[in-house]
Every structure is written in structure tokens, then in C-alpha cells.
Fold this sequence. Notes:
Radius of gyration: 22 Å
CATH architecture: Beta Barrel
CATH class: Mainly Beta
Number of helices: 1
Number of strands: 23
Mean pLDDT: 91
Shape: globular
Largest sheet: 16 strands, antiparallel, barrel
Number of domains: 1
Strand order of the largest sheet: 2-5-6-7-8-9-10-12-13-14-15-19-20-21-22-23
Low-confidence stretches: 1-6, 33-37
Helix content: under 10%
Distance between the termini: 49 Å
CATH topology: Porin
Amino acid sequence: MIFPHARFMDKSSYRVLGGFFFLLPLLCCLVKPSQAQRLPLRFYLENDSSSYAGLRLSGQVWMRYNQNNPGTLINGERSPGFFDISVRRLRLQTYARIRQKTNMTLTLGQNNINYLTARSGEIRLLDFYVDHRLHPNLTLGGGQSGWNGTSRFAAPLTSKLLTLDVSPFLIPTVNQTDNILRKLSAFLAGQAGPWDYRLVFSRPYAPVENTPPVPDSQFAGVKPGMQTSAYVKYQFFEHENLGPFHPGTYDGERKVLALGLGIEQQNRAMWHLNTASDTVTSSITLLAADVYGELPGYNEKAWTFYLGYYYYDFGPNYLRVIGFNNVGSGTNQQGTFSGAGNAWPAIGTGHTGYFQLAHTWKVPRRTEKIQPFISGQYSVYEKLQDPVRYLEGGVNLLFDGQRSKVSLAFQNRPVFDSDPSGSLVQYQRRTAFVLQYQLRLE
């Protein structure tokens, strides 16, 4: 059900969109294509180059106009829309390899340094783990890392995304029982022929929100069980590199087709009250099947696609409202179930279908590439009367692949609220426009 006054965009949104389209060609003229970086940022410790240390740096800056959810307050003032500049992600990574078998990785970084968080946006330890190749087909490692199962983009390489951003449901426990995806874990991973596989054993962090049990399932404030996840994929053409994170695109430069299956399970992860008001603990079970492909064609063109199905069981009526890089600080009496700013009910118990699609081609007589993209989420969650439909689309301008990239995108999300009968239904829709610059050096 959509309320009669629901609408896609208002007049101010169209004006802002026009402004972004004016800025994009201007930025294209100002940014000069850089020379491709052919040599890695590393120094070698042995004459045979078997041991070395290196550095990677990436960052994303956003300029955004967000059509805020109804009733949003910023510093106590009603704010129907808001323009801001923020640092969406920052990563500084060092790594070392010893005799081609042992690796150490250390990553520092932060997300969402914006108007509200700039003075408290401390740099955090994200990765610190060691792995050792026991056999050409098997690697063992442990520490705090992004090795995850369930689906391809349960561990997305955020500096090589196809879309502007990661849909939150793909990283279902983000910043609840992990640290920006990272968990304290041990893992086994490897490749054999066309197969790529990983098995991860994690000890989740204590939940951020230690809420008492209610009829709707929430993360439990009890001693949690061990979290186990696995992901297996079959690769038809070129083999992707073995690593914790999966890229969303190779910029049309590789021929890849991979089918994947994944699972994640954790006992005593959730709790809720039953009809007798007794506290019941339950497990998390996440299942996914997906396919990813990048298929180059003639004249340096390529299609990139991703399609996945996901079943998440967090217990009865679990639903998480989340807004990445949110600047809304509260709501007034006009507020809805979706909350402030750009939040929406993104993760929950139920079924989800998701897709990504892009076409890449080279600018005639130049080195840059153009990559328009679109992605969409369709979720049926237990707690909601209506399905969740989330859409993102835009275009990437690849000045030097992912090393220097500009993206212009829109995000259209649902706003949910209670109808007269008390059911949660789609009430309105809201849109955001984002202009991003990304730098990646390695």
C-alpha cells in the first residue's frame, strides 16, 4: 500500500539534480587523466622478490543532497532536505609477505566522517591478521579480518565497487556484532581448479545495543555462540585472486563468471519474548546463492552483472532500520518508523532478491571509461506489510580505473510507517543525489 500523497521527488530535488549534472561535466574538464600506476607501492626484502612490504591507500569523498525522511531534525531544527560534504571511507593498509607463504595485513580506517561526526571520527583498527599457505590449495589465518561467508558481497572490496555504495542487507550484522565488517576470527581458504572456498570461525563482538528482550527478536545480551560461515564459488573463465574481499568490477578488463553458495550460522545470538513472556534465545541462520559476471565484448566494451537470492533468519520479526552516513539527529512529531535522515528498514528476517548491472565502454580517442550502472533490492520481511524496494543508479567515470574515479548517483528508498490498523506499510519514498570522488593507490 502506498499512501495517496507518496511521491518520487519534489521540485527542490529536481533542482539539486540539475545542479549535480552541471557540476559533473565541469569536474570532467578539471580532472586530468593520470598515468596508469604500473609499479606497486612496495619495497623488497630479498633479491629474489619473495619477501616484501607494501602500502595501499584509498578514500572516497561525497558531496550529497539528501531528501530527508519526514520530521527529520538537524540540531533541533526541522530539515526536509540537507546538503553535506563528507568522507564516506578512508583506508590505510600495510602488508608484508615472507617467502611467498606468510602474509601480514594491517588496516586503519574510518567510515562516515560527516557534519555530525567530524570531531569524533577517530581512525580505527580494522584489520590485523596473519595467514600462511599450508598447501598450494589451502591457506590458514587468524586475527581481526574481513573474511566472511554468506555471499560474495558479505565481504565487498569497497574501493572497487560497481555501484556507488554497498546495500546494507549484504552486510547484515555490520557495526552490531562486528567492526565495520571485521570480526575476530580464524579461517581456512583456498582454490583448487575452478573452485574457490572459505570457512570462517568467528567470535562476534558484544552487541552495540544491549536491549532487553521484547516480542520482536533482538541481539541477545547473553554469552554468544561461535559464528561459523562458509562461501564456495565455481569460476568458469578467469580465476579471481584469493582474498577476503570481492571486487564489484574489473573495469571491463577481465572475463569472469562465478556461481556462489554461502551460509552463516550462530547459536544463542538473538532473544525475544514468547506469548507467555518467557525469554527465548534463538540462532542466526543466513543463506545465499549468487552469480557474478564480467564479460568483455568488442571495441573495449563490457557487461558486468550480479544477481543474488538471500534468506535471513534473525528470529521472529527482526528488522533493522539503518542509514549509512546519516546526518539526521532526531525526529519531531511528524517522524515515521523509518526514523531520521536517510534511514530505512534495510535488514530483517525474510527473503531478498538483489541485482547489479552495468555497461562499460572507452571514451573515443581517450583513455577514460564510462560505466553507467543500476542496482535494486526487493525484500519481503516478516515485520512489514509491504515489500522493501530500494533502487540505486548512476554513472562512473573511470579516469584511471578505480585509482581515480568520479561517480554521480541517485538512491531512492522507501519510508515506512504504521497505517490505521497498525501495520507497517510504505508511506512515501525519498531520494538522495551523491557526487563522489575516489582515489585508490597501491
